[in-house]
Specification:
This protein is mainly beta and 322 residues long. 11% of the residues lie in helices and 31% in strands. The protein has a 12-stranded mixed β-sheet, with helices on one face. A hairpin with a 5-residue loop joins strand 22 and strand 23. The N and C termini lie far apart (55 Å).
């Protein structure tokens, strides 16, 4: 697939500096550019590469001022990183999409499967499941009884979705993730014995949520564990029972949220963060990597460290420790 600078600029509403007929057929990092490749420059730390890159076209911010001659054709846009992401989505959407149901897939008779759905080899669709239109369910996926999956979802290989769970539209679940496994609920019977508490709730994932590989989202003891619309999870995330994650919240790899904690909208949770159970985290909260959160956080707070403190106080404390 080839695109000219003129076509790309038209799609991105950008301005061309150089030859509008320049053609690219692949993408590359600016430091690894080669003839026929498209790159982008958004971080000033990489500016020196633009003067030596072999890429044919480079996306740059409109306010970029070169300090030397640039051989590549430039396309100036408002935000080079976002523009590059838009192009990647265009390329991804242009790839051929698998369709049809593989003969080794098992679909129970009471299940309902929508139009233009792909179900790969050795996948299982349980009793009374509802699979929306245009879904892609890759090999060796398990979908338990009474589960509902909205239209346009992608369920990658080896995903397990237990019974009674609900996924909205346009969700992406990556390989190896388990949704709806039992929450960690045990009642002490003695100093050495525990009785399992049945986990009778479910997991509800709203529209346009993406969950990385090998994540685990536990079903609720009663009611629902809820992931709100637009949230994005990295790989290796643990979400406990009855947790609620707000809209458009981002959770980075190896973070864990203990049971019944409520996280607000538009939050950013860094890698290896741990949140204790039964907490309330407000909207627009930022939690730095490896923080341990044991108290409620108000709207707009930024915290670091373990125990997590206001970022400015934690930085002062680090200086004292050093």
């Amino acid at each position: 697939m080839e695109f000219s600078a003129a076509t790309i600029a038209g799609f991105l509403k950008g301005e061309i500096e150089g030859d509008p007929e320049t053609v690219v057929h692949t993408i590359a990092k600016i430091e690894e550019g080669h003839q026929g490749a498209l790159s982008f420059l958004a971080n000033p730390k990489y500016e020196h590469f633009i003067y030596s890159t072999k890429s044919s076209i480079v996306l740059v911010n409109k306010n970029f001022v070169p300090s030397s001659k640039v051989e590549a054709t430039l396309i100036r846009v408002e935000n080079a990183y976002e523009a590059f992401a838009s192009l990647l989505r265009l390329v991804d959407q242009s790839r051929p999409r698998k369709k049809g149901i593989h003969p080794t897939a098992v679909i129970e008779q009471t299940a309902s499967v929508g139009k233009d759905v792909y179900i790969g080899p050795y996948s299982y669709i349980g009793e009374n499941c509802i699979i929306g239109d245009n879904c892609s369910i890759y090999p060796q996926v398990y979908i338990g009884d009474n589960t509902k999956i909205g239209s346009g979802c992608t369920i990658n290989p080896g995903v397990k979705i237990y019974h009674d769970c609900i996924l909205g539209e346009g969700c992406i679940i990556h390989a190896g993730t388990v949704i709806g496994s039992d929450g960690f609920g045990f009642a002490p019977q003695s100093e050495t014995e525990f009785m399992k508490i049945p986990q009778l709730g479910n997991v509800v994932i709203e529209d346009h949520v993406e969950i990385g590989a090998n994540a685990a989202i536990d079903r609720a003891t009663m009611g629902s564990t809820i992931i709100r619309r637009g949230s994005k999870f990295d790989n290796l995330i643990q979400i406990g029972h009855n947790v609620e994650i707000g809209e458009n919240t981002v959770v980075v790899s190896q973070a864990g949220v203990a049971g019944s904690t409520k996280v607000g909208n538009n939050c950013m949770i860094g890698g290896q963060v741990g949140l204790a159970g039964h907490l309330k985290v407000g909207d627009n909260v930022k939690i730095g990597a490896q923080s341990g959160v044991s108290n409620n956080l108000k709207d707009g707070e930024t915290v670091l460290g373990s125990p997590a403190l206001d970022a400015s106080k934690q930085i002062k404390a680090m200086i004292v420790y050093k």
